[in-house]
Write a structure and sequence with these properties.
Elements: H1 7-19, E1 21-23, E2 30-32, H2 45-50, H3 56-62, H4 79-93, H5 103-111, H6 117-131, H7 141-148, H8 158-172, H9 183-187, H10 191-200, H11 205-208, H12 211-214, H13 217-235, H14 245-253
Antiparallel strand pairs: 1-2
Helix pairs in contact: 1-3, 4-6
């Protein structure tokens, strides 16, 4: 993360945080303010300070009373309360009379690891309300079960686990990022947020594109031709002759007898 504001503006911000005063642009009169600043981040700022990616003077001015909020997977007892809150809030917005959640659904939601935190949970509840046509919440649990069936990533850092998770979802969505069948919707993220994460985690198209997509048309046509030839020979119970790429190209391009 690099600074998006100039050093001079940053110095002025530090002065406001420290002395609670500033001068308006074009004025020489000092204005005093009484302010309380609340800042939030999902980054380890102390680590970024040690790596030179965040200004230490700004960090120590902001770090007056830090409050650490653990990830949703670390406070699973909050999930039932959040589920009921989102069901009530979103069903009222969509004018649907959903007033109950089955015990099986609640158990699955509590046991899910929620890589997208509360935003992913809220988006899943919203999608569930759209799919529900009665008083009981209908949640697409198959999505969670399909994810749980994937092998766990052993001894992986949080970033590498998140990277593998995003790549797997991109592959399942055929490389689509946005839209109704895109990975952003399935991950419970905004398109811009997912693209930002892909840039941060260095996820390129070659990481999630299938081998078939990367092939050229000529190779695909040749591959299809080989398959049809082998099928015809097998149906006639004739011996199969395996040819190299060069021999196959000669066979395709040779004039008919």
């Amino acid at each position: 993360m690099r600074w998006a504001i100039s050093r001079s503006n940053c110095n002025q911000l530090l002065r406001v945080l420290q002395d609670h005063e500033f001068e308006r642009l074009g004025s020489n009169r000092t204005v005093r303010v009484d302010l309380r600043l609340i800042a939030a981040t999902n980054r380890d700022l102390s680590k970024q300070v040690s790596e030179g990616e965040f200004r230490s003077d700004l960090f120590y001015r902001l770090n007056v009373f830090p409050i650490h909020i653990p990830a949703l997977r670390e406070r699973r007892s909050d999930i039932p309360w959040l589920v009921r809150h989102f069901v009530k809030k979103l069903s009222r917005r969509m004018d649907k009379g959903i007033d109950s959640v089955s015990s099986a659904t609640m158990e699955a939601l509590v046991n899910w690891h929620w890589p997208g935190n509360i935003r992913e949970l809220e988006n899943l509840i919203e999608r569930s309300i759209i799919l529900s046509d009665g008083p009981v919440l209908r949640t697409p649990l198959a999505e969670l079960q399909r994810e749980q069936a994937q092998p766990a990533i052993a001894d992986a850092t949080l970033e590498s686990a998140e990277r593998e998770h995003i790549i797997r979802v991109l592959r399942e969505c055929g490389g689509l990022v946005s839209g109704a069948k895109g990975a952003a919707l399935k991950l419970g993220l905004k398109r811009t947020t997912l693209q930002s994460k892909m840039g941060k985690l260095k996820i390129s198209r070659k990481d999630y594109a299938s081998e078939k997509i990367l092939c050229s048309d000529s190779r695909l046509n040749l591959f299809s031709l080989r398959r049809s030839m082998v099928a015809e020979v097998s149906a006639a119970r004739l011996p199969v002759v395996v040819r190299t790429d060069h021999q196959a190209n000669q066979l395709v391009n040779s004039p008919k007898s």
